[in-house]
Design a protein that fits this description.
alpha+beta, 3 strands, DNA-binding, Znf_Dof, metal-binding
């Protein structure tokens, strides 16, 4: 786990945290910016991924039950 906190390349905020190594490769550390709520790989190319694209929303169970009736 990297010790130093890297600034976000999008918004330059220091409110970031290390998440995991991309593809278990120590040369590709993945970080998350709490300010703009996006992930990035240190040393990787910037990609225009929308906010919250890495998380899935859970569907409400009422829609599932309505389908069964």
């Amino acid at each position: 786990k990297p010790d130093k906190i890297l600034p976000c390349p999008r918004c330059n905020s220091m409110d970031t945290k290390f998440c995991y190594y991309n593809n278990y490769n120590v040369n590709q550390p993945r970080h998350f910016c709490k300010n703009c709520q996006r992930y990035w790989t240190a040393g990787g190319t910037m990609r225009n991924v929308p906010v919250g694209a890495g998380r899935r929303k859970s569907r409400s169970s009422s829609l599932h039950y309505r389908h069964l009736l």
